[in-house]
Amino acid sequence: MPSWAAEARQAVKVYGKGDSEVRALDGVSVGFDRGRFSAIMGPSGSGKSTLMHCMAGLDSLTSGSVMLADRELGSLNDRQLTELRRTQVGFIFQAYNLIPTLTARENITLPLSLGGTDGDREWIDLVIDTVGLRNRLTHRPSELSGGQQQRVAVARALASRPAIIFADEPTGNLDSRSGVEVLSFLRRAVDEFGQTIVMVTHDPGAASYADRVVFLGDGRIVDEMSSPTAERVLDRMKRFGD
Amino acid sequence: MIGTLTRKSLRARWGRSLFIALSIGMGVAFVSGSFVLADSLRATFDTLFSRLNANIDLEVRSAAAFGGSDAERDPVPAEWLDRLAGIDGVDQVSPVLTRTATLLDERGQPITTGGAPAIGTLWQGEGDISGIVLRSGRPPEGPGEVAIDRSTSRRFDIELGRRLDIATPVGVRAFSVVGIVGLGDADGFAGATLALFDQPTAETVLDSQGAYDAIDMTVVDGADVEEVRRRIEAALDSRLEVITGEQVAEEAAEQIGDFVSAFGTGLSIFAFITAFVVAFIINNIFAITIGQRLRELALLRAIGANARQVRRMIVTEALVLSVTATLLGIAGGLGVARALIALFDAAGAGFPPTGLVLAGRTVIAGVFVGVGITLASVVVPAQRAGRIPPVAAMQPELGFGAISAGRRLVGGGVLTAIGAVAFVLGLFARPGGTLGLVVLGGAGALAVFLGVAGLSSAVVRPVSHALGWPFARLFGVPGQLARENAARQPRRTARTASALMIGVALVCAAAVFTESLRSTFLRILDRSVTADFVITDAGFQGLPPDLAQNISGLPELSAVSPVRGIAAQVNGDVKQFGAVDPRPFDLLADIDMQAGALTDLAAGGVLVHRDPARDLDLVIGDRIDVTYQNGVTGSLQVAGIFGDAALVGNWLISIDTLEAVTTQPQRDFFVIARVADGVDAAAARLALDTALDAFPQAELRSNAEFRQQQEDQINQFLTLITALLATAIQIAVIGIAITLALSVFERTREIGLLRAVGMTRRQLRRAVRWEAVIVSLFGAVVGVVVGSALGTALAGAVPDTVIDGVTFPTGQIPVVLMFAVLAGVTAAWYPARKASKMDILDAIATN
C-alpha cells in the first residue's frame, strides 16, 4: 500500500535529438507524502518544472512512470488525463492564474463547473473565508490586486479537494507581504485540512514553509531535507555552484 | 524556446497572410469577373452581328415615330421586293420574315428553352445574304421541310430526317428536318431555337399577310453603296426608310448590348457589395494583427527605427500582399467569367465561341478594389503603430488606446443618419434619374452599413449578453465563456459581425421588398380579377390572336378578352397603352372605374388612370392627341377615369382601336376568361384544354394556379438575390473564422490554463463554437433590423400599383437566425480545432 499521493519512478524526460538532446529528467524516483507540504528546489534548468509538469499530467515522460491518486499516468489518454487534473489535481501558477472574463467565485469553482457539479458548498464557503475573499467574490481578476488574485488561485486549487496541489513558484510575482500571506494559506491547508501540496520554488524563504525539500540538479535528485529553515536551504543551494 | 516561438508566430502569420490574400482575391475575382463577362459577351455579340450582317449592304424597313433599335415597326408590303430589285445598282434582294415558331416534342409539348425565344424565319438557302450557313443536310425546299440550328439539334437530339411538329402562327404543322445550320461561327443563338423555311413556306406558315419585316439587299459589284442608298430613298414612300448594313448590325448589337450591360451592371453591383464586405474583414484583420505585433514594433523602435520606418514597413507588407492577391484575383476573375459562360452554355445559352476580354477598365477596377481596400484598411493601424513609444517593448500590457466609445457612437450615428437621408433621397427624389437612384441609394446604403457598424459596437455588450444567455444556461462553463468572450472586445465583435450584418441586411431588405410585392399582388388579384382562367405563353412572345378568337366561341365560357399593348406618345412622352376587348373585359376585371364605364371604350376613345388624368387635367370628353410608334397619329376622346392601374397600366384602349392604327402582326400578352354561370369549372377546363390543342405553346392556368405561378416567380427573384449575395456571406463567415482564430491565438495562455485545470478539448471547442454563434447571431439580428428598414424604404419608393403597403416576412426571420447559427458553427470549425490542438505546456509558457 503506497503512502504517496504522487510518485515518480525512474522518470526520464528527453527533449530534442542527437547533439541537441537534453535530458531534463534523468532517472528521477521520488514520492510525495499524503497530507504533507513538499518543496522541489534546484537551480534553473535542474528539471524541477519538468518534474512537476510530468507528475501533474501536463506532460508525458520519455520513460519511467508516474503514479497519481493510485493511477499510472502513462496509461491514460488525453480525456482521462484531463478528468484526472480536474478532479484530483489543483494548480497554482506563478501568474495569469485566472480567467479574466470570470468573477472570483466563478474562477474558484471553475474545475467543479467544468465537471458539471456544484461541489461541496460548505467546504467552498470555508475555503473562501479561510483565504478572506468573501467580499471580493463578484469581482473580475482585473479588479483584484496581485495578492488577491493568487488567493483566488489558492481557493480554486482547494475547492475540489484534490488529491494533490501543484504550486509553481506561487509567490514569484508577489511582493513579500502578499507572498507570506499565500504561503501561510498553503501551510494552513496542510495543517488544518490535511491537503497534500507540492511546490516548485527557488526561494529558500518559501521553501522553509514546507515539511520537506527535495533538491534537483541536472535532472537528478541530489539531496533532500526535512523541516527546512531558510538558512539551511540557502546553504544547500549555495553548494550547487560547486 | 525563442526559436520555436518565432517559428510558431511566423507560421501563424503565414496562415493569416494566406487568409487575407484569399479574401482580397475573392473580392477582386468577383468584381473583375463580372466586368470580364459583360465585356466578353458584348464583344462576342458585336462580332456575331457584324458577321451575320456582313453581306448586307442596305435594308429597307418601316419608319418609326420614336424609339431606337427596339422600336416595333410596321411590315413592308411585299410588292417592294420587285420594286427594289428593279432599282439600278441593287443586286440581291432578300425578304426578312421572323415570327414565333415553337418546336414540339413527340408528345406535342413545346420544347422548353428556359425563356429564350422560339424563332421561325425565312431562309433563301445557301448563298443568301444572311449569315446563316449550312452545317449538314441541305436547305429546306417546299411546304414540308425545315432546317434547324445545330445547337438546338444537339441539345434536344433532333437529327436530320426526323419528323418535327412546329406550332406556327397558323397552327401546328408537320415538317421533316432536312438541314442543320449555324450562325457564322456559332452553333446557335443564345439559347433560342431556330426553324428555317423556304420563302413560299415561310410566307404561308409564318403568316406574312403579303408583307415582310424588312427587305435586305446587296449592291452590284463596283456600285457605290451610298449612291444606291440615295436612289432607293428617292423611290420610297414616306413610311419607309433605308439604312446601311452597318446600321443593321449596330442596332442589333445595341439591343443585345443593352441587355448585356444591364446584366453586367447587376452582377457588378453584387461584386462591389462583396468587395465592401471584404474591406470590413481586411480592416478588422489588420487592426488585430498589428495590435498583436505591437511589442515587436516597439522593439524595432527601441533599437532605433523611427515612426516613419515602422509605418512604411507595415504599409509595404500590406502593399506586397494586396498586389499579389489582386493579380491572382484578376486571373481568378477570368476563371470566374469562363466558368459562368460554361454554366450558361450548359443551361442551353448556346453562346458563340467566346474569347475573354480583359479591358483596361477591368484591371483598374480590380486594383482599385484589391489594393485600395487594403491600403485604406492599413492606414489607421499603421499610424497608430508608428506612435508606439519604444518603451512599450518593455511593458507587460500592450494595446491600442481605443477610440472612445462616445466618439464612436457620435460618428456612427452621424454616418447612419447621413446614409439614411441619402438613401431615401435617392429612392424618392431620384435626382438625375436612374443614376441618382443608384449612386445616392448605393452610397447611402454603404454609409448606413458603416455607421451601423460603428454604432453597433456600443450595444455589443448588452445584446451579446442577451443572445448568449441561453448558451450560458444550457452549456455550462463553455457557454458562459463563449458569452463573456463575445462581449470582451466590443469593437472587434462589432466589426466581425458587421460583415455578416451587411449580407443579412441585404437579403432581408430583398425579403421585405418581395414579401410586400407578393402581398400587394395577391390583394390586387383578389380585388380586381374576376376571371377564372389565365392563358399565357411560356416564352413571353405572346399568343396568336386566333387563340382568343377560337375560345371566345366556347359555350362553357361567358367572357374572353385578350390583353395587348402598344407604345404611343402623349404630349411628347412615350406611354404604354393597354388594349382589351371592353365588353368581356368588364366581366373579367374590376379596374375601379371612377368616372364613365369600361364598356364605353367599345365606342372608341381611351380610359385614363386618375394620376395622369390629374397631372394632365383630363376629364371625360376631353381629347388627347396620340402618335403611335409607326407614325400614325390620332385623337382619342377620354371615355372614363379609373383607379387601378395594376392590371392594364395607366392608359387603356380597345383592341379595335389598336388594330385600326397598326399593320404589325398582332400578339396577345395574355388572354383571360371566365366560366359561364351554371357551368362546372372542370367541364370548362376540359373544353378549354381541347380548344387549346391547336396552340401547344399556350399555358392554361386557373386563377389559383396563376397566383401560385406568380408567387413562385417572386420567390425565385428572392432566391436569385440570395445566391448573388452568397459570396459576400461566405467571405463574412471566413472573416468570423479568421477573427476568432486570432482571438484564440491571443488567448493562448488562458486556454492553457483552462486545459490545465480540467477543461476537455471538447469543452474548449464548444466554447469557441458558441462564441462564433453568438457573434453571428449578433450580426444577423442587427442585419435584420437594418435590412427591414432598408426594405421598408425600398417598398415605399415603388409606385402603389406595384406595392401598396409594407409586409414583413415574419416567417423568414427564424430561418435567417437558424442560418446565423449554422454560419457560426461553420466559422468556428478552424479556430476551435486550433484551440483544442494547442499544447498545454507551450500555452502556459507563452508570454
Task: Map the helices and strands.
The complex is a heterodimer of chains A (242) and B (847).
Chain A: E1 4-15, E2 22-33, E3 37-41, H1 48-55, E4 63-68, E5 71-72, H2 78-88, E6 89-92, H3 104-108, H4 110-114, H5 121-130, H6 146-159, E7 164-168, H7 176-193, E8 197-200, H8 204-207, E9 212-217, E10 220-226, H9 230-238
Parallel strand pairs in A: 3-8, 3-9, 6-7, 7-8
Antiparallel strand pairs in A: 1-2, 1-4, 4-5, 9-10
Chain B: H1 2-52, E1 58-62, E2 76-77, H2 80-85, E3 90-96, E4 98-100, E5 102-104, E6 118-122, E7 132-137, E8 145-149, H3 150-155, E9 163-168, E10 171-183, E11 193-197, H4 199-205, E12 211-212, E13 214-219, H5 225-235, E14 240-244, H6 245-292, H7 294-302, H8 307-346, H9 360-386, H10 405-428, H11 434-456, H12 460-474, H13 476-486, H14 490-528, E15 533-537, H15 545-552, E16 557-570, E17 573-580, H16 582-588, E18 593-595, E19 606-609, H17 610-615, E20 623-628, E21 633-642, E22 651-654, H18 655-661, E23 670-675, H19 681-691, E24 698-702, H20 703-724, H21 726-746, H22 748-756, H23 761-797, H24 812-837, H25 840-845
Parallel strand pairs in B: 6-11, 8-10, 17-22, 19-21
Antiparallel strand pairs in B: 1-13, 1-14, 2-12, 3-13, 4-6, 5-9, 7-10, 8-11, 9-10, 15-23, 15-24, 16-17, 16-20, 16-23, 18-21, 19-22, 20-21
Helix pairs in contact in B: 1-6, 1-8, 1-9, 1-21, 6-9, 6-14, 6-21, 8-9, 10-11, 10-23, 11-14, 12-13, 12-23, 13-23, 14-20, 14-21, 14-23, 21-23, 21-24, 23-24
Could you name the ranges of chain B where pLDDT drops below 50 across 5 or more consecutive residues? 1-10, 396-400
Number of domains of chain A: 1
- Backbone CA Rg of chain A: 18 Å
> Could you tell me the number of beta strands of chain A?
10
User: Beta-strand level of the residues of chain B, as a percent range?
Assistant: 15-25%
The CATH architecture term of chain A is 3-Layer(aba) Sandwich
Number of helices of chain A: 9
Biggest interface reads:
A-B, 28 and 22 residues
Helix content of chain B: 55-70%
Distance between the termini of chain A: 39 Å
Q: What portion of the residues of chain A fall into strands of 2 or more residues?
A: 25-35%
